[in-house]
Specification:
alpha/beta, Nucleotidyltransferase, domain 5, five-stranded mixed beta sheet, two-stranded antiparallel ribbon, 29% helix, elongated
Length: 160
């Protein structure tokens, strides 16, 4: 049984391989995203677009209309995080096609784990044995290994 563990954050992803719980994890790859440390203002110099409400006022008077900024989920940092999650998913898909692992454990902070989950192709998603909602990128491999859940070492069900 070959287990691939990906420990990821917005800025870095570490890929480990191990065969059993007692085996020391081997670092097999690393991806980094230097843009993850930038602020929204560093991605572009302009403010978000503005939207003006042009609905007529109920009292029939003319005057200033309300306006507000657009953006929200299209913030540059969120978009960059999604691009990085896609890079990680592509790396995992390529390794899966080569037969490098039989099951996958994904470790990331909750917000980034959601992006990873969203970007993983179905062929990789069915190999996910466990997900751990912790940001362990800056921790030693022993900390990652201590957080491996027991179900990562059990056989995957046929319905997954």
């Amino acid at each position: 049984m070959r287990i691939r563990v990906v420990v990821a954050s917005l800025a870095e992803a570490l890929f480990y391989d191990l065969g059993s719980r007692a085996e020391a994890p081997r670092l097999t790859g690393r991806l980094s995203d230097p843009k993850a440390h930038l602020h929204d203002r560093d991605f572009k110099s302009d403010r978000p677009g503005r939207v003006f409400d042009h609905a007529p006022r109920p009292d029939g008077r003319r005057g200033a209309t309300a306006h507000h900024g657009t953006g929200g989920e299209r913030r540059p940092r969120r978009q960059e995080a999604l691009v990085f999650a896609r890079r990680i998913a592509a790396e995992l898909a390529q390794a899966q096609r080569k037969g490098d692992y039989d099951r996958l454990v994904v470790m990331a902070a909750p917000s980034f784990l959601g992006l990873l989950r969203q970007t993983l192709p179905q062929s990789v998603r069915k190999l996910v044995a466990a997900e751990v909602t912790k940001d362990l990128v800056n921790e030693p491999p022993a900390a990652m290994q201590a957080h491996l859940p027991p179900e990562a070492f059990h056989e995957l069900s046929a319905s997954a």
